[in-house]
Design goal:
The protein has 359 residues and is of the alpha/beta class. It is 32% helix and 19% strand. It has a domain of 86 residues. Helix 6 crosses helix 7 and helix 7 packs across helix 8. The two termini are 28 Å apart. 42% of the residues are buried. The structure holds adenosine-5'-triphosphate. Adenosine-5'-triphosphate (ATP) binds next to strand 2 and helix 3. The site of adenosine-5'-triphosphate has 12 residues, from strand 2 and helix 3. One of its GO terms (molecular function) is ATP binding.
Length: 359
């Protein structure tokens, strides 16, 4: 297992010389806001400004001041309820979306300086690849398995002819996809085979970092196990790092070195996955662990907690996002947003973390 690296260590790489042991991925103060639909648009904003009216428009703060690092060879889990911002975060990291602020640095290169549209054709595009939840939906239905795997090799590596075929076949072999299936379309493949195509397509261009957005959620439990084993083998054989997004805390505890717990756009706790789940320090992580389906109920659905989350639209910067749902909440939580603080190899954003750690 890779040694843990705390969330705030990124600071050393933002200001001053990069350390010798530079993280593979360095995310600093990342923000992504979406305008609330039905708002007035750029022209309306201009009109309001000319009339001297308010120009601020409401925004969903989907990712709010998020910082973390991933080291070479590490598997980092990302967990949190639906709507906490996991998909938005990974879409910004993989440069499918532009951030509203902050830095994404991969192997020292600041990816966030390149607009998403331009990055799609960038030679470094292949260094960070994504595997989506449902390969059946993310693969073009008119592409055979061969064409799906060949597509990024053509676009990003400029391969064609025999060299292209050799790379596609190699990726299929690595992912346990029989070559005879390469001529089939997605609807002619089983869920597990489609998942293998999605993974082969991502690893064919030899990325440094694979971002897996619930890669097994659409699969039967028995197939999930086989795909997780495949991912484990590939990681060792190809020397990749993983960011693994999942609702399944059992799987995250099993395969991840570290975990990031996200709530309403913010990281509220991070640390070694086993320790975080065995002894959660943030009341939200505790609630998540308590609400997680047992082994018998695996696949029973997403975790749902009691109570309504606060609104993600222009949240009050002085109020803890978990206030209102938190059993520990007091007036203090409504006047000062708790910052992430370090406790050994853990980081926790709660005013009462000392109380919890000293139990
Ligand atoms: N294009 C968009 N426009 C406006 N709001 C958006 C957009 N995409 C996401 N959001 C909002 O951003 C917040 C985070 O959504 P996101 O899909 O990232 O959460 P999630 O944790 O990935 O959820 P799930 O696990 O259900 O996929 C939500 O409040 C969502 O409604």
């Amino acid at each position: 297992m890779t040694a843990p690296l705390a969330v705030t260590e990124h600071a050393a790489t933002i200001h001053g010389a990069p350390p010798a042991d530079m993280p593979l991925l360095d995310v600093a103060e990342l923000e992504k806001r979406f305008p609330v639909s039905g708002t007035i648009g750029p022209l309306g904003r201009l009109r309001r400004r000319m009339k001297g009216g308010p120009v601020h428009l409401p925004h969903v703060h989907a990712v709010d001041d998020v910082s973390f690092v991933i080291r070479k060879g590490e598997t980092v889990g990302l967990v949190g309820e639906s709507g906490c911002g996991k998909s938005t975060l990974v879409r910004v990291l993989t440069r499918l979306l532009d951030p509203s602020g902050g830095i994404v640095r991969l192997g020292g290169r600041e990816l966030s300086l390149t607009p998403a549209r331009r990055f799609a054709k960038d030679p470094d595009r292949g260094r960070i690849q994504m595997v989506f939840q449902d390969a059946g939906e993310s693969i073009n239905p008119r592409f055979t398995a061969f064409a799906a795997i060949a597509d990024p090799l053509r676009r990003l590596r400029g391969l064609k002819g025999a060299a292209l075929t050799a790379k596609v076949e190699r990726a299929a072999d690595q992912c346990g996809l029989p070559r005879a299936l390469l001529t089939r379309f997605p609807h002619q493949l089983s869920g597990g085979q489609r998942a293998r195509v999605g993974i082969a397509r991502a690893v064919a261009v030899e990325p440094d970092l694979l971002v897996l957005d619930e890669p097994t959620a659409a699969l039967d439990v028995s197939v999930q196990v086989v795909i997780l084993q495949l991912l484990d083998t590939l990681k060792t054989d190809l020397g990749m790092s993983y960011l693994f997004v999942s609702h399944d805390l059992g799987v995250v505890r099993l395969i991840c070195d570290r975990v990031l717990v996200m709530y309403l756009g913010k990281i509220v706790e991070s640390g070694p996955a086993r320790d975080v789940f065995a002894n959660p320090l943030h009341p939200y992580t505790r609630a998540l662990v308590d609400a997680a389906p047992s082994l018998h109920d695996r696949g029973a659905g997403r975790i749902r907690l009691q109570g309504e989350p606060r609104s993600p639209i222009d949240p009050d910067p002085n109020v803890c996002r978990f206030y209102g749902r938190c059993p520990k909440g007091t007036d203090r939580c409504t006047t000062a947003m708790p910052e992430l603080r370090r406790f050994g190899d853990r980081e926790v954003a709660c005013h009462f973390a000392e109380e919890i750690t000293s139990r």
